[in-house]
Amino acid sequence: MMNINVLVAEPSGSDWTAIAKGIRRQLPEASMLRVKDGEQALRFLFHRGLLTAEPPVPDLVLLAEELPLIPAAGVIARMRIDPRTRLTPVIVLRRDLEEEALDPYWDGELRASMMTVCVTDGLETQVAEAVNDLCHRRPPLPERQKALSFRQ
Predict the structure, then answer these.
(1) Long-range CB contacts (within 8 A, 24+) of 113-120
(2) Between 22 and 105, where is the model more confident?
């Protein structure tokens, strides 16, 4: 069975619990790594394992829009300029759907790999549905990228 790696950047403990349950509903075997701010997310994506060739690329990234230190828009901007993470699917957890701060990152080919979930009482179900939708839209990463797992 292929490892599915999910990076979750979410500062709220209660939201993290709902997010993890939602991911498990669709991807029961997923390895999840939680970070609590945008700086930790970027450090994991681009600086982890400095002694190895490249850190593992997550199959899916979930970001709270309002992350401490570096907001989701900053994490996404950095991901989109790196060939390794450019097309990594991203789910953004947005508290206010009226805000459109992420729109510059939704253009063209990237639109198929991004979704927004408005955080409500049904967060677990919303995350499960978003994960299911993205899994059907985007193929899994090539096997060569799956050599490294979060579990290692």
Answers:
(1) 113/87, 113/88, 113/89, 113/137, 113/138, 114/76, 114/89, 114/90, 115/89, 115/90, 115/91, 116/91, 116/92, 117/91, 117/92, 117/93, 118/94, 119/15, 119/93, 119/94, 119/95
(2) 22
H or E element that contains 118: strand 114-118
Closest by Cα among 74, 97, 87 to 145: 87
pLDDT digits (tens, 9 = 90+) for 6-63: 999 999 888 899 999 999 998 898 899 999 999 999 988 987 655 556 667 898 999 9
Question: CB-based burial of residue 74 (10 Å sphere; 0-12 exposed, 13-18 middle, 19+ buried)?
Answer: middle
The predicted structure's pLDDT at residue 36: 95
Closest CA to 36 of 2, 20, 12, 3: 12
* Per-residue confidence (pLDDT) for residue 105, from 0 to 100: 53
In angstroms, the CA 78 to CA 56 distance is 16
> Distance between CA 138 and CA 110 in Å, rounded?
11
